[in-house]
Amino acid sequence: MNGKSPAESMSGCVLDDGWVVGERVNPSGGTGGCFSVRYNVVSADGRQAFLKALDISARLNTARDVVDAIKDLATDYAFERDIVQKCDGMSKVVRGLAYGQAKIPGSPVGPVPYLIFEFAEQGDVRRHLGALESATDVAWKLETLHHISIGLMQLHKKDIAHQDLKPSNVLVFPDVRKIADMGCASERGRGGVRDHLAFAGDPSYPPLDIFYGYESTDWEERRFGYDFYLLGSMVVFFFTQEAMSALLLTHLDESFFPNNWGGSFFEVLPYVQHAFANSLEEFRANVPDDEIAKALSIIVNELCNPDPRQRGLPPSRRAISRFSLDQYVSRFNHLARLAAFKLKQA
Q1: How many C-beta atoms surround the C-beta of residue 241 within 10 A?
Q2: CB 100 within 8 A of CB 16
Q3: pLDDT confidence of 316, banded at 50, 70, 90?
Q4: 265-301: per-residue pLDDT in tens?
Q5: Distance of alpha carbon 179 from alpha carbon 152, whole angstroms
Q6: d(CA 92, CA 165)
Q7: Is the pLDDT of residue 161 over 90?
Q8: N or C: which terminus of the chain has fewer CB atoms within 10 Å of its end residue's CB?
Q9: Which string of b and e fits 246-277 if b means at least 16 CB within 10 Å?
Q10: What are the structural domains, with CATH classification, of the chain?
Q11: Using CA atoms, how far apart are residues 10 and 315, in angstroms rounded to an integer?
């Protein structure tokens, strides 16, 4: 097999359900697929799709305990497969099309488990952010944030937290944007391989309280609250090209950085809050419309509050839970329509 693992040798395979495996895809910015290999696939009737294969050999080759590694791999794959099935019918979450096990000719290892997802020919949002014209970018960004907030709401209503929302995990389809990659998801009431982690997603994006060692014992605050932070970070990224935590650190004195700070999180919190306020001002200055900038800065302030106990809807806007997304869906929708109206009036 030329030194390749079975998961790396799938090109040309015809799967039991008729899918033909094409070229391998090099992931960019993915997290949930640390031990996965990705391919383009085509169905018997010509539909394009995307395949994620579990690379068992790669995981076992790095494992200290092979038995534990096999158990973790099986749990990980079954969890993501089940989560994907529970997401079926969600309009703003990438849909799973099939799953199964591929037999690789000449492989001494068993079949390769895989998942197949709908294909986004237009890629993720990063490609579009760089190509937008200044006259249309605000409306497109706000419409995209509206779609993302709907996707998160659909997940949360099923008690699923995504945990890895970032630009590379928001895919662009004709007339709609969808959240992808459930590999780091967390489901209320069900254990998973990553549930012991304070934060399961990309280490470039979490709120700073993670790095200061704060971890809430409340599931909603720990999981939905982090999704809220990542949604707010997406807003910031769309207008500054930086994630919220990265922007915040540019306004924080290095003596208060997590790796330099010797005190508790709540002792450093006032300094982080001050840096956060300055970050909001920089963000607001990067939004070209003052009315929209003011509304978005209020949203980011709520979603990305450095104090996880205050993150989410303030008491004055709260009906039941501070982690309800309905209001954010409505607010992004209003701002998207406002930006589109202003564009027509220009």
Answers
A1: 14
A2: yes
A3: confident
A4: 999 999 999 999 999 999 999 999 999 999 999 999 9
A5: 8
A6: 13
A7: yes
A8: C
A9: bbbbebbeeebebeebeeebeebbeebeebbe
A10: 6-118 (3.30.200.20), 125-345 (1.10.510.10)
A11: 53
